[in-house]
Amino acid sequence: MTGELLRLKDGLVALLPVAASLMVVLVSSVPFGVPYLGPVMPSFAVAAVYYWAARRPAALPLPATFALGLVQDSLVGSALGQSAVILLAVQAIVGTQRRLLMAKPFHVFWFGFACLVPAAALLHWVLDAVLEGGIPPVVPALVQLFLTIVAFPAVAWLMARIEHALPEPA
Amino acid sequence: MKTSQLRRVALPVRGMVQRFALALLLGLAVVTMALDHFGNPMVERARTRLVDGLTPFMNGLSHPVVLARGAVERVQGALLLYTENERLRAENERLRHWEDLARRLEMENQALRATANAAAEPKGAYVTARVIAASGGAFVRTLLINAGESDGVAKGQAVVGPEGLVGRVVEVGRRSARVLLLTDLNSRVPVRVESSRVSAILAGDNSDRLALNFLPADAEVRPDDRLVTSGEGGLIPPGIPAGIVAAVEDGAVIVRPMVDWYRLEYVRVLNYALPGVLPSTREAGLPGEGW
């Protein structure tokens, strides 16, 4: 009985990274009523995916990232799959650069994020241009990019709390 | 020995599986995106199902925000009680004058309609819904509301806020719906200039401002002119305030929407085409008649 309970607990703990990532995606769509925030809301999803892809790739499996993307698209109203493409691309890029980011001080980890976000934002912008058939506005995209980088420590802090609860990787 | 051998084989295999999964999921995402772009009904259904499933979570998450906003407003209200009271007293006086005028005009209107034997305007019903998700992206201008098919919401219906037209319903789930805002690139609403009754099309361009298109060449439009819906097309009732002319530059008319997007908490979905068929709503809405 205790063994089963422990296994259940381990199973629930293993789900925490996915649950927390889903939570930040949902929170970023809540209507906060702050003037001008809506269009430039930081992309918490990119921050969450970056964190787990760099620190614990097994904690956020690819299908979970795909699902996060679909959830984001369905809430925001973008083409279903667009965010999934961006988040999967982020995960793939970080996966190849893990050695550079592993066990580095936080500011290096943050700098890595700051280097990656413009690529993700550009991909988002290009996909928007293709899907909308026009040139999307640049200024909100730039502000969003900046805010995403600034907001990263908050997301990283939350994810780090969860990472401490996870068992050490084998 | 055995485990290290196993690991030597397992690692590359795992890498291959990962790469395969990545390629598969990326491919799937691109295909879904393309299908959605071309309006595939299956993808649209999948999306509305997903939104329906997320609605309880978004309802729960937006509650504390609404409470916090309410608390802030109460504190502000308490601090400004005296000036607010004075302002409201003045406004009340002004509105009482308007009420008298409206009553007189309504009676006159009824009398004239009876004499002219004019067809009665259809009476509409509405559903009140809460905004549960605002566009989180830089490029899309949509909202999600917590009322859907089961509340009588249907595609194309007009959505209004306290100040005027917000947009129209573009996707309907069972208990949620997506509203395309006036400011979205794809939004086109037939309107009239209130003072001159000239028709035009109010178009969004993904910015905070709107453009007034298809205005007759000889039409005269001045800043501060109000624009109201014309009712052409049948789904959006006539006479709903949609915007105010902000500027006229080189023949281009720039319009400021009536609605303050950031304060939008509750909206009304108007059922104009089929009056009086809305079922009573669950927690989502407070049904009523007329607007």
Describe this structure in words.
The complex is a heterodimer of chains A (170) and B (291). Helix content of chain A is 74%, strand content 0%. By secondary structure, chain A is mainly alpha-helical. Chain A has one domain (2-165). In chain A, helix 2 packs parallel to helix 4. Chain A is globular and about 60 Å long. The two termini of chain A are 25 Å apart. The model of chain A has no long low-confidence stretch (mean pLDDT 89). Chain B is an alpha+beta fold. Among the domains of chain B are: 84-120; 188-257, Thrombin, subunit H, CATH 2.40.10. Chain B is 38% helix and 25% strand. Chain B has helices spanning 2-37, 41-79, 81-116, and strands at residues 125-134, 142-145, 158-160, 165-172, 177-181, 188-193, 199-204, 210-213, 226-229, 241-249, 252-257, 266-271, 288-289. In chain B, strands 1-2-5-4-3-12 form a six-stranded antiparallel barrel. In chain B, strands 6-7-8-11-10-9 form a six-stranded antiparallel β-barrel. Mean pLDDT of chain B is 83; it is low at 274-291. At the A-B interface, helix 3, helix 4, helix 6 and helix 7 of A face helix 1, helix 2, strand 1 and strand 2 of B.
Task: List the main descriptive attributes of the protein structure presented here.
A: mainly alpha; 7 helices; B: 291 residues; alpha+beta; 38% helix
